[in-house]
Fold:
Amino acid sequence: MNYSTREEGGYLVLDLEGEVDLSCSPDARKQILDALAKGKNLLVDLSDVSYIDSSGVASLVEGYQTAKKAGQKFGLVGVSEAAMSVLKLARLDRVFPIHPSVEERIREDG
Amino acid sequence: MKTQKLLELRFQASADRLCLIRPLVKRVAEVVGCQGDLADQLVLAVNEACMNVIQHAYKGDETGEIVLEILNNKKKLLFRLKDFAEPVDLESVQPRDLDDLRPGGLGTHFIREIMDECVMGHLKDAQGNYIEMIKRIS
Structure:
């Protein structure tokens, strides 16, 4: 898994890329929780995620819950087909705010 | 009905082995006719079962070993995973209620959702545990 961050429209965007599995999900979790600890609104871009397992999904759930508790915005953008099928299996596609792109999310925020 | 062994792998109970196992499982699934989403789901289920062993049976001890066997006949694909860790409490391996939103606990749900049958137990001839996951492919 590779990751990078960028700022866009009041959000910190965390781009995850490649396979998010048990060997690297602790890194993904740390990036998510560190961003939220800095008080950022966070979007996680999953468009280049080719595989995600339950440990990766758990990092997203923890981020979502942490943000909600702190009153920060959190969402997923550009969710790849591979990631979406796993989220659907966990029925989390109905829980996470999911948008096609960062721009779309920002537009929706108004 | 004749059952044949398609693959047997023995590997360390380490998270960084999972990326080596997944492509092999996917290829086997494809060879027996499971394509696309189904092949991907089978890979996910086997990955999750391996993760359970790494995290809950060996509790992070990477010197432990896992044996993965994949067998098939015309109707079924069987994934058998064995470890040699202390026997786990089988009652504790349960899928969580999906309405109870919390990190973790999804692996067993994925396995049960994807596979048609799933049996867990303790090895009889040695210390350890096994899980057998069956997918009907006819």
